[in-house]
Amino acid sequence: MQPKISIITITYNSESTIEETLKSVVSQDYPNLEYIIIDGASKDGTLAIVDKYRDRIAKVVSEPDKGISDAFNKGIAHATGDVIGIINSDDVLLPGALRAVADAYEDGVGVYRGNIFIWESKNDTRIQACPSMKFPLHTYKKRIVCHQGTFVAKWAYDKHGVFKTDYRFMMDVDLLIRLYEAGVRFKYIPKELAMFRLGGVTSSSFLKKTGELERMFRENGAGWLYAKSHVLLFSITNSILVVLRAFGLSTFIKKIKFRICR
């Protein structure tokens, strides 16, 4: 079976990285692809680069948005595929990724998750990471999100909702928790699907994320004590990582932060 796969790339002033992203998607050896670009009204040369690939892109929207989640949701609204993936404008879809998703496709599965490479372009180091496959609300176990290697069935978005637009950092964790808690079936794809470039929002200071993290737990039904204790553990863990980074232990930090494939 060759399910229709929609890929969404959101972008804003990404002229330095987007062409590599575009090439990685349009060069996929998979015929039933729908590619959607959601641009936040870029002021640099981003759209000129996008125009070079317009014959391989199904939809280009360029207008101001209300943030990352809003841009994600615009792409989902335009998507008509059976499965939807999101590859940001500084990330890369790896060769054969869509074929692997199609091979894994089956009725009743709502979320497909594969491995990714975490890429630090400054020194060109790559670490292979495996995604978490369980997202229960109440757990202190580290959740490895890796949304670049995550593909969600269209029906799952339609039934359980999309990204919350008032979240800047925790929108993908929130979505996966909601889907998992609703009983949506997750399926693991044992292949590297994407390469995630460190930097941007994901690498922002953890102090900016703590308030949103607590709110996310409370809005999903966690009690006040659980939410507070989880945020405390998150803060302690990341404070230790900051100290380790100061001693130049970047690779060691990545192996702590991400679940490394064996």
What would you say this structure looks like, in words?
The chain is of the alpha/beta class and 262 residues long. The protein has a single domain, classed as Spore Coat Polysaccharide Biosynthesis Protein SpsA, Chain A (Alpha-Beta Complex). It is 35% helix and 22% strand. Strands 1, 2, 3, 4, 5, 6, 7, 8 and 9 form a nine-stranded mixed sheet that branches. Strand 2, helix 2 and strand 3 form a beta-alpha-beta unit. Helix 7 (210-219) runs antiparallel to helix 8 (224-246). It is globular, with a radius of gyration of 18 Å.
Distance N to C terminus = 30 Å
Largest sheet: 9 strands, mixed
How many domains? The number is 1
- Helix % is 25-40%
Count the helices. How many?
Answer: 9
Task: Tell me how many strands there are.
Answer: 9
Q: Could you state the oligomeric state of the chains shown?
A: single chain
Task: Give the CATH level 1 class.
Answer: Alpha Beta
Question: How would you sum up the global shape?
Answer: globular
Unreliable spans:
none
Q: What value does the average pLDDT take? A: 89
Looking at the structure, the CATH topology is: Spore Coat Polysaccharide Biosynthesis Protein SpsA, Chain A
Strand content: 15-25%
